[in-house]
Every structure is written in structure tokens, then in C-alpha cells.
Amino acid sequence: MKSRSLIDTNAVVTVVTAGAIAAVAFFIVLSVLAKPSDFSTRASEIETKAERAESLFRTGTGANAFAAGSVCEQGVEAQATALKARVQAAAQGSGVTLASLGAAPAGPGQDGVTLSAVGLQFQASGRYDQVMGLLAGLANARPAVFVDTADLISRTSSVDLKFQGRVFCNARS
Predict the structure, then answer these.
(1) Which residues pair with 152 in a beta bridge?
(2) I need a labelling partner for 170 at 20 to 30 A (CA). Which of 1, 64, 133, 145 fits?
(3) Does the N-terminal peptide bond of residue 36 adopt cis geometry, omega within 30 degrees of 0?
């Protein structure tokens, strides 16, 4: 007696093939939907801006690309010390408590690069208006502090601020 299978293998192959085709079609549709219509234009603009910035930094005109007062003219070690003093004074003036404060050169200078960064990190707490006063004081001072991240965390009667940023200095001074 020949045993009959309860499952028709042709039907299984057909169902699996149809499922695979549906999955591929689904992923193709998702990839088309996920890519903005002006993606090529946006990517081209970003590449152009990146090439321009790199060109400015390598040709010696990088510091001149920033507004007057945006780039410090002193060395990075001196700027790190001055930056810490500036944040401490701004915190004291606005009534904010500093939990931590650090400022140091972001890394060794590179040949042919005209700007060097001084990294700034601090954590502060106080009333919302006090913390905003601290940030306003930093925003208005020169050289400019470029913000990488600023996390403002609300507490019941105060806010905590975790800040990371940079000041750029002319590497040739």
C-alpha cells in the first residue's frame, strides 16, 4: 500500500514561493518610501558643504570663515583655563550650582589644520530662569561656544543641565 502524504508538496512550495515574493516586494516598497524624493539633492549639498569646510581648514582660511570674535586667538591651553573661569563666573552670576566642570584641548593639533578645539563639559542645576541665564551668558560671550549637546532635565522645583560644547582657537597663534 502506498502511503499518501497529508501535505501536498506542490502546495507548500507554491505558498513558500509566494511568501518570499511578497516579502521582497514589501522591502522594496519600504525602501522606496523611506528615501525622500530630494535625497540626491540633500546628499549633494551636504557633500559640497563638507568639502568647502575641509578646504577652508586646510588652506589656512578656516579661522577667517567664522564671524569676528568666534575663534580665540590664544593657544588652546590658555583658552581651556579661561573657558573654565568664564563658566564659573557665569554660573556664579546667575545663581546656578555647578556639579562638574571640565575644559581641555580636544586633541593634538594636526599639520595643515588652522583650528584647534577646546572641549567644554559641565553639569549645573538651579531654577529654570537661572540656568537659561547661564546659557545666555555663554551665548553672548566671545569666543563663541559651539554647542554639541545640551540636555535640560526638569525636576520638581529646579532643572539640571548637562552641557557639552567646543570653542575653536586659531592653531597658528
Answers:
(1) 161
(2) 133
(3) no
Residue-wise burial string across 65-103, b where 16 or more C-beta atoms lie within 10 A, e elsewhere: ebeeeebbeebbeebbebbbebbeebbeebebebeebeb
Q: How many domains does the chain have?
A: 2
Residues 77, 53 share a domain: no
Is pTM beyond 0.85? Reply is no
Cα-Cα-Cα-Cα torsion 69, 109, 52, 34, nearest 10 degrees, comes to -110
Same domain, residue pair 98 and 158: yes
Give how far Cα 140 sits from Cα of 68, 86, 133, 134, Å.
13, 12, 11, 10
Grid cell listed for 165: 560644547
pLDDT in tens, 147-157: 889 999 998 88
Same domain assignment for residues 43 and 76:
no
Statement to judge: residues 53 and 136 lie in one domain: no
Sequence-separated (6 or more) residues with CB below 8 Å from residue 34? none
Residues 156 and 98 in one domain: yes
pLDDT tens-digit series, residues 92-145: 999 999 999 999 887 655 555 567 888 899 999 999 999 999 998 888 888 888
Tell me the residue range of the domain where 78 lies. Answer: 69-170
CA atoms within 13 A on the CB side of 22: 6
Classify residue 1: in a domain, yes or no: no
